[in-house]
Structure formats: C-alpha cells, structure tokens
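Q: Please design a sequence for this.
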C-alpha cells in the first residue's frame, strides 16, 4: 500500500547529475529503475532536485538526451543558483539568486586583478586550460587528476588571501566561488522554503563538489554510488550513510531504497 504524502519519510531527494544519476556512455544514461523510483516518490509528494555544477542549457540538453519521463521539481545550477519548476518553466528563486550574483560579483571584483599571476603560475608548470566564464574569473581544466590535485592545493593557498573565496572542484575541473554558496547551502535554502528538516532529506553524489551537501547538517540520508571518489565514499560512510556496490544511477536507486526502508522502520519504533 502506498503511503500518503504526510507519512513519506523522505520528502526531498537531492541528486548530483554527472556520474551520480547520469552517465553519457550508458543506455539509457539515467537508469529506468531510478526513474521509476523517483516517479513513485514524486507521486507521493516528495520533491526532487538535481543539484549540479552544470548551467541551465547544458543540463537541459543532457536531460533531453536522457529521454526521461520525470521532471525535477527544483534545480541547483552551477552549484549555487536555485530554480523551481512553476508548471511551465524553471523560474529563478529571485531572492536567493540575486543575493548570490551580488555576493559573487563583489568578491570576484577583488580577486580578478590577481588572476593573471595565478594563470601564469599554472601555465609555467602544467598543460592545463585556464579561462574566465560567466560564473568565475578563473576556471581550470587540468590535464589529469594528479595535476588537478597539485593546482587545487595552490588555489586553496591563494584563497586564504580573500575572505569567503573558495575553490569548487569536480574531477579535473575547478573554479572559484563564494563560500556561502554551494550545493549544501542551496539545499538548506530549499529545505527552509519547503519547511522540512534534514531528517526528511536524501542526498546522493559522487565527487568533491558534492561534499557540502553530503553532510548530516543538510541531509540525514546520505548515499553514494560505487564510482564515488574515495573522500566522498569515506565521508558518506563516516556519517552513517550508504555506499552502494552499484555504480551511477543504479547505486542511487539502491541507496534510496535502503534509506526509505531504514527511515520507515525508525518511524515505527
Ligand atoms: Mg558528479
């Protein structure tokens, strides 16, 4: 028998996208088992947010290619902006996104003059692509993860010179952001808007940029697929979370089922 929305223990499902629910080289890129499970939970009143580093056009394009029948209720894009599906389109949560854009503009205005020296340091030592985009005055694509680790350490040191400046890293990609905005604080804002607590939130991710949301501060029910990088798997396990034997979306469905059972049994005791 289906539970009513009032008794569904998990009311918000926050999933990273790439490597967590979506894999380009698999057919389909988002597994049907996960699609069906999320559809079922949405039908019972749960909300689903894709919490990703992608921007809107990149995510929409990938979601279109995945040909899924379900639709996220919310998007967190570029690890910081929040959008809500209003029945027609994804509309920005204006108060949050405006503050986010303002805080980043103020911070990046102070950082930008120092970026050429930073770029020169990297280019003198590594084969890497460095550029500015709409979201950061400094973006990096390292040649490999080993190079990215060394550059990441240098960037962390650089950040100590600017209060609130931090590095967001995903595989060989890195950029700057304001410390107040990440997948975790965006998830906290959503929970505030939905008037639910961490005890009703599930979060799943696979890489370093997911660590801020893979925290018991924001989500009681944490999961990672088998392909998660070691720091993520260790963090999830260390917080009573679940690391699946299955990769990607199959692992997320596995984690979600595991936690739904656990959450339901805790409610009964
Ligand atoms: Mg990922």
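A: Design:
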């Amino acid at each position: 028998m289906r539970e009513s929305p009032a008794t569904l223990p998990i009311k918000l499902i926050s999933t990273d996208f790439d490597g967590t629910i979506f894999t380009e080289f698999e057919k389909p890129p988002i597994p049907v088992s996960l699609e069906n499970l999320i559809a079922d939970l949405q039908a019972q009143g749960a909300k689903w947010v894709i919490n990703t580093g992608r921007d809107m056009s990149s995510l929409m394009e990938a979601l279109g290619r995945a040909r899924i029948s379900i639709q996220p209720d919310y998007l967190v894009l570029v690890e910081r902006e929040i959008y809500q599906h209003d029945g027609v389109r994804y509309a920005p949560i204006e108060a949050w996104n405006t503050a986010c854009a303002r805080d980043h503009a103020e911070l990046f205005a102070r950082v930008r003059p120092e970026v050429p020296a930073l770029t020169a340091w990297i280019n003198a030592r590594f084969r890497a692509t460095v550029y500015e985009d709409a979201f950061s005055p400094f973006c990096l694509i390292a040649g490999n993860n080993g190079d990215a680790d060394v550059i990441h350490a240098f960037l962390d040191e650089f950040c100590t010179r600017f209060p609130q400046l931090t590095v967001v890293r995903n595989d060989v990609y890195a950029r700057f952001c304001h410390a107040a905005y990440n997948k975790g604080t965006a998830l906290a804002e959503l929970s505030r808007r939905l008037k639910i607590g961490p005890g009703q939130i599930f979060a799943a991710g696979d890489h370093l940029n997911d660590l801020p949301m893979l925290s018991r501060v924001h989500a009681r029910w944490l999961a990672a697929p088998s392909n998660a990088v070691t720091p993520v798997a260790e963090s999830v396990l260390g917080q009573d979370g679940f690391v699946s034997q299955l990769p990607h979306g199959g692992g997320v469905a596995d984690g979600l089922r595991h936690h739904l059972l656990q959450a339901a049994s805790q409610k009964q005791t």
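Q: Thanks. Anything notable?
A: The radius of gyration is 19 Å. The first helix runs from residue 32 to 43.
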